[in-house]
Amino acid sequence: MLHQGAIETSTLELIKKLHSKEYLQGFYLVGGTALALKMGYRKSVDIDLFSNFNFDSSQMLENIHQDFPFQLYYSAPNTLKGSIDDVKVDILAHRYKYIEEQQILKGIFLLSIQDIIAMKLNAIITSGQRSKDFIDIYYLLNDFDLAGMLSFYKNKYNQQNETIVLKSLIYFDDVDLSDW
């Protein structure tokens, strides 16, 4: 089931159009928008498409420009950041294994909740600045216990140290509350 009301109709249609392109096969919707569609507890406005393989950023940019009015903000190997019709779109290689099966729902390729939880924990550990990451974990605790979340993180990132995750979850000095 998709909670389609959690994102703008135009954003939902853009996701479907992006996923219809052959050059974006193997790129999955992740992050807050994927959680919004799957869980429905908050609104989200951006599109994060991740693969677990390398890609040629120049070729990807050329392909996207043929089909969309993509405004480029940043490019690096395996990374494109920009916008299409004022919707932020990030396309990245995130070269870690998938811990659960991906889903295709109504033309949208979604990474599993378990993978997204692991990625949210990793974002908190490596940055700890986005309040949305903490809020997502808070809501996800309604459906997953902390031990399970830690196991998703350890499995995805081949990590054994839980202490850094636990400390990061209670360290709020760097959190930017303006993004909520």
Account of the 3D structure:
This protein is an alpha+beta fold and 180 residues long. The protein folds into two domains: 4-110, 2-Layer Sandwich (Beta Polymerase, domain 2); 113-179. It is built from seven helices and seven strands, in the order αβαβαβββββαααα. It has helices at residues 9-19, 31-39, 57-67, 113-126, 131-140, 146-157, 163-169; strands at residues 28-30, 47-51, 70-76, 79-84, 87-93, 103-105, 108-110. A five-stranded mixed sheet has the order 1-2-5-4-3. A hairpin with a 2-residue loop joins β4 (79-84) and β5. α2 (31-39) runs antiparallel to α4 (113-126) and α4 crosses α7 (163-169). It is globular, with a radius of gyration of 16 Å. The mean pLDDT is 95.
Query: Percentage of helical residues?
Result: 40-55%
Largest sheet geometry: 5 strands, mixed
Q: Beta-sheet strand percentage?
A: 15-25%
Strand order of the largest sheet: 1-2-5-4-3
| Mean pLDDT across every amino acid position | 95
Structural class from helices and strands? alpha+beta
Radius of gyration: 16 Å
Instruction: Count the beta strands.
Output: 7
- CATH architect. name of the largest domain: 2-Layer Sandwich
CATH superfamily of the largest domain: Beta Polymerase, domain 2
Protein name: Nucleotidyl transferase AbiEii toxin, Type IV TA system
InterPro entries: AbiEii
Pfam families: AbiEii (PF08843)
